[in-house]
Inverse folding.
């Protein structure tokens, strides 16, 4: 097992190289080229010869005028912990260990590492709250619907979840804001952001201060996260319900389930011990796909609720053809996808004794 | 089957997860405390040095020298507007102004910031040597009490105000001005956009503790504005950082203006965290009215409207025209918010550029009669009424109508399709079966390019297609992605383009757009307009230092461009704002209102936020 995991981890390196190279060269050959829009916007209102001078400065600084293969090579050198060090002019000096870096954004002129450090936690937070919710709803309703197939619960939930799945997130988000966050209707939730304005003065936990209740920082953040999380989990939980229902139904009709019942095993035991366990395989398979898709899908949520995370960073990067940002987002997205695929394969072993990689 | 992952294991796993989450939360909480402690420490440090200074003064026998109250009294030549507004009977300091931004600025550190939002925020923190009066546009003293320009315009002397301190209590002297210029010119600092303006500056040196001299290499009409508008940075504060640290910083912001960052070293564009400035109690002029200026970040237009409705934000700068009308006409919102539609100098202009040469051959637009006819075929008043909801004015040239550069006698060409047809017939165009044919016998058709992301552009394009169809001209609308559009512009590979040039400057330099020297290479004269008279006039204006004479030349250029119509100048936007009615002293100026929040105040009984 350990050798298998090690082999898979090592295999990731060429895969990631392939992904980033593909992204890099496609971007470089698209109209505008690398940094196209980012550098065109540099200098704002400055025009003509002066704008050209500003552009030349940035081209030199970000080595855009070098051949493409050199640029890609430089980026690889930059992210690798072993490689050439650079001097102020960007020339290679000594070879050896160095601190890896993700470079600097051409549009925001800030280290990409910092940008990621600001946006990744938000995206991860959203997803780590959302995924358990999706699974809890999906598994519970799926099993229930399968057990009482054709019953009231199954048909009502089947219908509403189909409707939920078809609902565009953008529309749902805007509707939530206008109906649940506005004085005009119900003002239950905040319209935007991650914390209240005075959050830095709040206590951490809810507390009774100076005669009135203060909600505290933790509760405040949760309160702000409710609507985004609803939006994120809506569609995905409907999808999971359908999946669980299908796979549980299939296993309920299988021979081994009938045998178990014939042996006199209680129905609950048949369902949760035997059938559910066998239905897990399908759940694990989609789990590997859900995490990366949530990362990408959160861009809409991030825009609607003004909480800029990784999704927005990537979209902005693509819009400005910001080399370092796109490559960094691709790299991180690639790593997350590959790792979740590896986890999926490990979970197969845990769920199904028949699977073995040794 | 012994090592089965059972229910017990699941619980254990969840327990460990829970523990990890708790530890992380604990760390986060500790971090928050750390920030607060840091802030308190800074404040205590400030107060200690203040106390020490006061004690020293007391020991010297009497309080002499620049003390805060007398300084303010002696600086009556600045902040005259603020003083007038704050002398109202119901004036009371206090309350917050909560504004809203679409996106957080990337950096607040001066010189290396690039977006407009950060400049707006910096304007409250940093001070300039001189400033323009927002109504008369004349120069008024700020950090400089007086100045002298040599007759040849090459040497400019400034005398600095004494007793001004930065918000950390350090005095502002000539050293700081010289340091600011040196830092801007330092190639290691990532400030190329600020540096280009100083390319004609030869030297900047201090001639005394409170006087500086700037010398230019050649006469330059912007010279006084460029050096006078320098936002003075603290040498003591900024010289602590290496160029690398400075370039990578996001929020090193300290100045001598009416507001300050609570912690001048710490700001980071944290998602969801508003930007906050507090009143600078060491400010040397008339202190600002509100206690705090806050900017929240809300990206979605619908969410901004909701926040306005809930009173979570106090103002809404630049809403879309339809949102503005909602605020104006909604019975509940109009009771709570004042609305302003202001012509400002920040308004740039939208235009249709007619390319005169494509693939090496002159296009139909090379003929001035055709260009004039194009303008006359477009009912700009209707575009403004139907698409912008009336919140714009027709542009007549490249200069903002409020700027002294603009010749007020130039009136827009009328909407007159008949006259346009006559002009086209004169130019050799013939009309057959409702289609227009050029002098070369080909049908008159052109591609109308516009940025694909802009909704307004899309609607303008539809309008143009209709207007031209009535004259028998076939227009192919071409929504184009921004990078592709720039590429085509660079290659001069287009027929007509709808776009805008930004405003913001009182005096604008048309050389890069309309001079024939900007046709080749990187220039922005992508319509390839060339008129030797305009070229000569632009050259003359750029080297004329005398303002009155220069304005006459600009007026002449304005008239020539109007005659030639290299662009169809479409319209200039108004600034739209909604501001909570509790704010008094909100007076529209030629720079709009958002940069003047220090003038506003809230009468005591109406104040909403308290400390």
């Amino acid at each position: 097992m350990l050798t298998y995991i090690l082999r898979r981890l090592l295999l990731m390196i060429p895969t990631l190289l392939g992904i980033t190279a593909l992204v890099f060269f496609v971007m470089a050959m698209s109209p505008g080229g690398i940094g196209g829009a980012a550098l065109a916007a540099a200098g704002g209102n400055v025009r003509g010869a002066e704008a050209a001078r500003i552009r030349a400065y940035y081209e030199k600084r970000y080595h855009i005028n070098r051949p493409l293969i050199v640029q890609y090579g430089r980026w690889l050198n930059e992210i690798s912990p072993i490689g050439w060090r650079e001097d102020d002019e960007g020339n290679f000096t000594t070879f050896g260990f160095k601190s890896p870096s993700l470079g600097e954004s051409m549009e925001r002129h800030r280290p990409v590492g910092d940008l990621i450090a600001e946006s990744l936690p938000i995206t991860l937070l959203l997803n780590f709250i959302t995924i358990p919710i999706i699974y809890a709803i999906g598994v519970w309703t799926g099993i229930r619907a399968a057990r009482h197939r054709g019953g009231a619960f199954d048909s009502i939930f089947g219908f509403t979840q189909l409707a939920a799945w078809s609902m565009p997130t953008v529309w749902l988000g805007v509707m939530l804001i206008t109906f649940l966050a506005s004085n005009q209707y119900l003002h239950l939730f905040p319209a935007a952001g991650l914390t209240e304005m005075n959050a830095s003065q709040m206590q951490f936990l809810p507390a009774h201060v100076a005669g009135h209740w203060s909600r505290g920082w933790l509760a405040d953040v949760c309160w702000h996260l409710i609507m985004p999380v609803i939006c994120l989990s809506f569609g995905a939980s409907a999808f999971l319900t359908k999946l669980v229902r299908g796979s549980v139904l299939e296993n309920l009709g299988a021979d081994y389930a009938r045998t178990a019942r014939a042996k006199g095993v209680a129905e609950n035991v048949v369902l949760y011990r035997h059938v559910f366990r066998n239905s897990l395989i399908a759940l694990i398979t989609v789990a590997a796909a859900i995490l990366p898709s949530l990362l990408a899908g959160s861009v809409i949520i991030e825009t609607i609720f003004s909480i800029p995370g990784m999704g927005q960073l990537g979209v902005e990067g693509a819009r400005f053809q910001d080399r370092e940002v796109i490559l960094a987002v691709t790299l991180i997205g690639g790593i997350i996808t590959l790792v979740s695929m590896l986890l999926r394969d490990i979970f197969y072993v845990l769920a199904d004794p028949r699977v073995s990689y040794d | 089957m012994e090592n089965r992952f059972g229910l017990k294991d699941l619980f254990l796993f969840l327990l460990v997860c829970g523990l990890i989450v708790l530890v992380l939360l604990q760390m986060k909480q500790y971090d928050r405390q750390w920030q607060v402690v840091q802030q308190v420490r800074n404040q205590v440090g400030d107060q200690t040095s203040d106390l020490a200074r006061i004690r020293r003064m007391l020991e010297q026998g009497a309080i002499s020298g620049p003390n805060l109250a007398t300084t303010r009294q002696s600086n009556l030549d600045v902040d005259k507007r603020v003083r007038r507004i704050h002398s109202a009977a119901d004036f009371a300091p206090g309350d917050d102004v909560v504004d809203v931004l679409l996106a957080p600025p990337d950096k607040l550190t001066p010189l290396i910031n690039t977006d407009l939002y950060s400049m707006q925020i910096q304007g409250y923190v940093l001070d300039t040597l001189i400033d323009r009066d927002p109504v008369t546009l004349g120069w008024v003293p700020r950090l400089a009490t007086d100045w002298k320009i040599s007759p040849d315009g090459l040497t400019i002397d400034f005398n600095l105000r004494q007793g001004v301190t930065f918000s950390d209590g350090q005095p502002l002297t000539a050293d700081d001005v010289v340091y600011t210029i040196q830092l801007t010119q330092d190639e290691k600092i990532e400030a190329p956009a600020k540096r280009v303006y100083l390319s004609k500056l030869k030297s900047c040196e201090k001639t005394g503790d409170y006087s500086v001299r700037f010398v230019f290499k050649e006469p330059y009409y912007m010279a006084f504005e460029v050096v006078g508008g320098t936002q003075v940075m603290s040498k003591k504060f900024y010289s602590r950082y290496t160029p690398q640290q400075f370039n990578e910083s996001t929020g090193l912001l300290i100045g001598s203006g009416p507001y300050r960052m609570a912690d001048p070293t710490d700001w980071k564009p944290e998602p969801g965290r508003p930007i906050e400035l507090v009143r600078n109690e060491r400010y040397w002029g008339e202190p600002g009215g509100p206690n705090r200026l806050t900017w929240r970040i809300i990206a979605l237009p619908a969410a901004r409207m909701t926040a306005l409705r809930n009173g979570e934000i106090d103002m809404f700068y630049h809403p879309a025209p339809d949102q503005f009308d909602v605020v104006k006409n909604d019975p509940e919102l109009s009771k709570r918010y004042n609305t302003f539609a202001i012509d400002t100098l920040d308004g740039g202009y939208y235009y249709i550029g007619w390319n005169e040469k494509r693939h090496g051959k002159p296009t139909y637009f090379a003929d001035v009669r055709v260009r004039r006819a194009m303008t006359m075929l477009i009912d700009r008043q209707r575009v403004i009424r139907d698409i912008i909801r009336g919140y714009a004015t027709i542009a007549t040239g490249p200069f903002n109508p409020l700027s002294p550069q603009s010749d007020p006698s130039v009136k827009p060409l009328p909407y007159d399709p008949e006259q346009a047809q006559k002009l086209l017939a004169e130019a050799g165009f013939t009309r057959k079966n409702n289609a227009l044919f050029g002098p070369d016998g080909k049908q008159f058709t052109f591609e109308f390019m516009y940025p694909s992301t802009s909704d307004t552009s899309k609607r303008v394009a539809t309008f143009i297609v209709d207007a031209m169809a009535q004259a028998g001209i076939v227009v192919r609308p071409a929504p184009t992605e921004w990078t592709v559009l720039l590429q085509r512009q660079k290659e001069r590979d287009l027929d007509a383009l709808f776009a805008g040039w930004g405003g913001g400057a009182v005096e604008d330099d048309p050389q890069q757009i309309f001079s024939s020297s900007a046709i080749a290479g990187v220039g922005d004269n992508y319509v390839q307009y060339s008129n030797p008279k305009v070229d000569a006039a632009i050259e003359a204006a750029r080297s004329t230092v005398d303002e009155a004479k220069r304005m006459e030349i600009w007026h002449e250029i304005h008239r020539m461009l109007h005659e030639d119509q290299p662009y169809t100048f479409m319209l200039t936007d108004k600034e739209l704002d909604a501001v909570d009615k509790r704010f008094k002293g909100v007076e529209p100026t030629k720079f709009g209102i958002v940069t003047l929040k220090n003038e506003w105040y809230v009468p005591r009984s109406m104040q909403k936020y308290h400390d």
